[in-house]
Amino acid sequence: MTSFEASSKPASQEDFGFEVTATLSNGLGRTGLISTPHGKIETPAFIVVGTKATVKSVLPETVRDLGAQAVLANAFHLYLQPGPDLVDEAGGLGKFMNWQGPTFTDSGGFQVLSLGAGFKKVLAMDVTGMQNDEVIAEGKERKAHVDEDGVNFKSPLDGSMHRFTPEVSMCVQHKLGADIMFAFDELTTLLNTREYQVESIARTQRWAQRCLAEHKRLTLERKGKPYQALFGVVQGAQYEDLRRKASRDLAATESDGWTFDGFGLGGALEKHNLAKIVTWMAQELPDNKPRHLLGISEPDDLFAACEVGADTFDCVNPSRVARNAAIYTADGRYNITNSRFRRDFSPLEEGCDCYTCANYSRAYVRHLFKAKEMLANTLATIHNERFTVRLVDQIRSSIRNGDFYEFKGEMLGRFYQKKS
Ligand SMILES: [Zn+2]
Known about the structure:
Helix content: 40-55%
CATH superfamily of the largest domain: Queuine tRNA-ribosyltransferase-like
Low-confidence stretches: 1-6, 117-129
Shape: globular
Radius of gyration: 21 Å
Strand content: 15-25%
Bound molecules: zinc ion
Number of domains: 2
Mean pLDDT: 91
Distance between the termini: 70 Å
Oligomer: single chain
Number of helices: 16
CATH class of the largest domain: Alpha Beta
């Protein structure tokens, strides 16, 4: 076969795979192996976020060296800037950003719909009180409107009007070229009424069907490109019947023999309900497909989710808080700008195997933050990302070795102990 013939062949769903390699005694938590055209991911795994095709302030070589197996970028941000055509022309996300391993893109649904609710104001995970579908954050303009076919939104960059539909999201994500993509879903908040949640998950299911059909069409049309897996996204907020139904419906979604390659566990999840809600979904979803839980990185959440069968996670938090001088350690989080570190020449965390801790002191990193030097962000981010990636790696080992519960008790006991 000539190389021309090889490259003119369309990719197939068989180019993506997942196998479960060990299971916890509860039958839900597991370790596994995801295979993509750009490499394998041992799960559970923490996926480092590079929103705009860069992990802020850190070189891709360093991201690899700190142990990240894959990077997740944001379809919405890359759609606005520099645009999917340019990333496609560059050879896809991985090539464009010089990351050789597997890549993920989210659908853009979260960011688009967040504009409608006043981003980061009412999308809190622990909202209680009155439910109202029209609630928006005080002083915010509603910048996104949902209809049956898609969402109209105003660009936060320049105020221009745009429209995302399931087909647009698929087209954008195919051009971005990540190994794992997510179906376009409607994000609801815990403030939405149950009535609206019912309506919304029915719409998300119709959109999922359209995403799958468009995904198949684009895969067959874009011959010679590596296969990009598509994950359906489960919504349903805090309602057991809605979560279970949405999971079953997505698992059964099919378009001319094609099905979802995996699933995203989406939506606002209250911390105290996280394990319960992930359990409902894990019990309904097929065991032989991976599950990605969107947006968690706190140690207690990671243990809770791994225990009940979530396989991969992503979150901006380790790098975001690093840029605010917050440092994760096995003994909890602290702020490196505190004056008690002025003459502290020990590493950010004793015993940490990251590049920052091997080479720099608390006194130096504190100095960089106080002097507003850019290297402060880089060094703190490397440590926090390494902390999070390593923690999930250790969870994976503990599931394999049969000491998950001991490790969980010991690690969480130490991390959350009250300091006197
Ligand atoms: Zn470190």
